């Protein structure tokens, strides 16, 4: 165990169980392949590019997006204004897509276990429909983020889609969105941080990297949990939020020593940000 690493035992137990139940997780060589290439060392300077190629060599889209939770997740990714200065307007079709996604993840063993656990702790309703409504309010209700003049963001947009603010790109801690934006030519991958990138049995899961967005905005440090399913990440961050695990928390997820960061937003339980990274206390 890494020196100084002190895992939250309750969180480690429940998140490890969710990870074990996640039969929708993806694997390298079967569902995708990545190429880490060169490593970066500065979290401030994004001017140097240590990767000539894309991070993702390929993703088997037919296989991955044939799964209901991935397919309905994919439908959500084009529903947002990228710049926080632009107000969000949610159409009827987008509302339908939000609920389709929630319906899909609620069928999974991961979300069933997360619901059971949270209800047992008295922080979530027992009724499935009431819990689904709670998830909707946490992840999809709009709020005003700094830099905007009106309701310009939501938890889902920041964590999974990403947003532009001034010269910076904020959020986007999801491997699927990273792949899709890289494929579209919007992301220029610059390389990875060696200390914060962890492999287990040659399966690289926790990766910290750097990229530019359309050669206009920079992301000096971005952490992703490669291969995790949408339902696992929604479940994990929801558990942390409702258990009031705000800030940086050490936890074990399976064999991985993880620093899980959750920043709540406002009084009505929104996620300002949430992401997983390798424990940096090496």
TrEMBL record:
GO terms for molecular function: hydrolase activity; lyase activity; metal ion binding; RNA binding; RNA endonuclease activity. Its cofactor is Mn(2+). It is an enzyme of class 4 (lyase). It catalyses: ribonucleotidyl-uridine-RNA = a 5'-end dephospho-uridine-RNA + a 3'-end 2',3'-cyclophospho-ribonucleotide-RNA. Keywords: Endonuclease, Hydrolase, Lyase, Manganese, Metal-binding, Nuclease, RNA-binding. Residues 7-280 form the EndoU domain. Its EC number is 4.6.1.-. The keyword Iron does not apply. It comes from the Eukaryota. InterPro entries: ENDOU, EndoU-like, EndoU_C. PANTHER family: PLACENTAL PROTEIN 11-RELATED, URIDYLATE-SPECIFIC ENDORIBONUCLEASE. Belongs to the ENDOU family. Monomer. This is Uridylate-specific endoribonuclease. It comes from Littorina saxatilis.
């Amino acid at each position: 165990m890494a020196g100084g690493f002190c895992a939250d035992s309750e969180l480690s137990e429940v998140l490890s169980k969710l990870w074990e139940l996640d039969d929708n997780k993806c694997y390298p060589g079967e569902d995708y392949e990545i190429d880490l290439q060169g490593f970066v060392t500065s979290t401030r300077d994004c001017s140097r590019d240590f990767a000539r190629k894309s991070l993702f060599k390929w993703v088997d889209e037919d296989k991955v997006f044939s799964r209901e939770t991935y397919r309905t997740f994919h439908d959500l990714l084009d529903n947002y204004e990228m710049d926080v200065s632009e107000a969000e307007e949610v159409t009827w079709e987008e509302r339908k897509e939000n609920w389709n996604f929630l319906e899909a993840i609620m069928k999974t063993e991961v979300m069933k276990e997360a619901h059971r656990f949270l209800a047992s702790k008295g922080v979530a309703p027992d009724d499935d429909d009431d819990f689904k409504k709670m998830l909707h309010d946490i992840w999809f209700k709009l709020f005003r983020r700094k830099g905007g003049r009106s309701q310009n963001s939501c938890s889902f947009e920041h964590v999974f889609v990403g947003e532009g603010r001034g010269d910076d790109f904020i959020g986007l801690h999801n491997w699927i969105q990273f792949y899709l934006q890289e494929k579209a030519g919007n992301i220029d991958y610059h390389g990875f941080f060696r200390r914060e990138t962890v492999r287990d049995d040659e399966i690289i899961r926790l990766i910290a990297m750097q990229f530019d967005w359309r050669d206009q905005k920079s992301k000096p440090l971005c952490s992703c949990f490669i291969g995790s399913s949408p339902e696992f990440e929604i479940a994990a961050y929801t558990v942390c939020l409702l258990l009031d695990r705000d800030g940086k928390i050490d936890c074990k997820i399976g064999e991985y020593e993880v620093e899980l960061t959750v920043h709540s937003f406002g009084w009505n339980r929104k996620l300002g940000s949430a992401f997983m990274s390798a424990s940096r206390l090496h």
